[in-house]
């Protein structure tokens, strides 16, 4: 049975009502709810694991890869980690109510710009079941109601986690519509959600290119994309080559399947002959396939293969790296601004002037000097939490944490002022 | 001839290139360009006025109203005001490069969050020709390239203003694609623009409901809407009634055609019998038509008419006001959150507690206490400039000035850190 607009309207109305309540809940109350939810996740672990077993059985029957099945699997230890994560969010400062600015006008009006929740946030994800609780509690802490739409492969697990959060949260005063999941794996439900701008203030899609393209096309409300990361490391002619190898190996190999892993290596031509053979050996010994421009190909050993034009704009998420020799810093910057995804890029150099030019001119959310791209991450930035990494430039760019889940409003206090 | 994607691609590419240049222009250089543009607007006044005369002739032939023709009309004095406005923008502080936060991590990474331009902004407007220069110079000051699409009735004027800005700006170093207008009044051009997310980072539509609905449906890039203002004044039972009348009259009558004018008056039932007859007389003497709920109708004199359900969500932009008696502060807040447009709402009361509840619970961009809704304005807030008033909650809410035309990025400086 397909999911209808009337069904969404029910969910949307409840979320809207909850959002108005959440917006004025005290920090103490929200934290009490968060602790109750953390306890509830542990209390309802047997039910969650039983539902997770259904997803695992379906996944095996559908022939999903071992890696995907592992991502899907919950156990007591993973459930405990979810609960610990929720308690950590309770410890974070509450962004809502923060006075961002205040001033007085010559006519005596006193103005304040204060942080408020956004309202109702829809999160669409294709990922581990723990995202269900992570995303919900970040929305809750920032005073937002959330409508979740997880991947169909984790449907039973996600529903069980939501039910646990709702039941446990209710005991501590969680408004009924604060955390809801679409009760369907129907693909059309995403389209219905995208048209519900009356009830949803923001959609955050996290997932594959196709999903994000679809949400971007269909959504009538604002979208903050968590798109691909085509991240670069540029090894400048003034680089410390030992450092460069360490950073390149870390950026490519430490966790190749994530968006802040390096996908393209750019090397200044003056050091290419010295740097590339050693670097290639280090990478190839870790199983990395190198796809090279004509100039780098002969420097990267017999296993390297030629790159095609498509390689420069491909997010491999695997042990594959495209390699290009560039004639100058400017050409490295141009390459990144042309082929990159404005996510994360790094320069390795001992030349501070070159570094500052790179930092200023590369148009990406995170630009690093002498550090691995893998540091582009809410946790590594010290944000204490992360809802994802935005590849948009509007509202939130790069790692998104609690403040990025808020809006603001202006409060104006007068004593009878009228405009003349 | 219809406007094609290939034509937009030319404009888009030029804008992209210009945006990368603008992002690293010094404040001194940008201000020199702004002064050159201001001088150019005056220098090219004869050409601008000649083109304006064509628009005026067309408007008269098309039978546009006198008010609309007046909005369209340029003269020497209006051109001087445009130039003065540009010089004022040059005096404003440059938002780009501002360090919004900086901190160091335990691993020695030094992080900075710095303000950057957004990139390429498209502005769609249906308004006075001076918006062409106002919007362009705000984008320029904040380091953004702009693609303009004005109303067809002002096409010749807008093009002449753009040509003047381009020619004069070029002398001072304005990049070629920094300020461009779509060279067509073709309605389909808006659709082509909405699909060009490769070249446009943000669309700001300012205009009628239909235009905004269309952009919201079609745009693949972020949109910041400048939608309608269904603004309320709530006169509480503890209001100073003299003050309330002054504020109500000002909010409705001082300039009824703008988005921050009041459209609905809410009155607490305890003071309705005392307040409404006097208030109605003041309003009716200024030509305001009152559309009343059953309780307020008998209190507003014989000229008042009954309100329909549609009145509560109508932006009149005229001397019409809907009036409703409410039983409580809570009901006033509920009415506003249900029927309002989250733009601007005001409470008149001597009761500070009631005021603070209203300020906290009304979910609007600007919420006022004892002041006219007409103060919800970038100029009145002291922002020195205004691109418009956002009715969205994402990125920019309420009056938008230079900082709202920026994004940010993270700069991370290390000494070889890798992630373990």
Describe the structure.
The structure is a homodimer of 420-residue chains. Chain A is an alpha/beta fold and 420 residues long. The first copy, chain A, folds into two domains: 5-227 and 395-413, Aldehyde Dehydrogenase, Chain A, domain 1, CATH 3.40.605.10; 231-380, 3-Layer(aba) Sandwich (Aldehyde Dehydrogenase, Chain A, domain 2). The first copy, chain A, has 14 helices and 16 strands. Chain A has helices spanning 5-22, 27-43, 45-61, 66-72, 76-91, 130-141, 155-171, 188-194, 209-218, 241-253, 269-285, 329-339, 352-361, 378-381, and strands at 99-104, 110-117, 120-125, 145-149, 179-181, 202-206, 231-235, 262-268, 289-292, 305-306, 320-326, 344-348, 366-371, 388-390, 398-400, 406-417. In chain A, the strands form four sheets. Chain A has a seven-stranded parallel beta sheet with strand order 10-9-11-8-7-12-13, with helices on both faces. In chain A, strands 5-4-3-6 form a four-stranded parallel beta sheet, sandwiched between helices. Chain A has a three-stranded antiparallel beta sheet with strand order 1-2-16, with no helix packed on it. In chain A, helix 7 links the parallel strand 4 and strand 5. In chain A, helix 3 (45-61) packs antiparallel against helix 7, helix 5 (76-91) packs parallel to helix 6 and helix 10 crosses helix 11 (269-285). Strand 16 of chain A pairs parallel with strand 13 (366-371) of chain B, so a sheet runs across the interface.
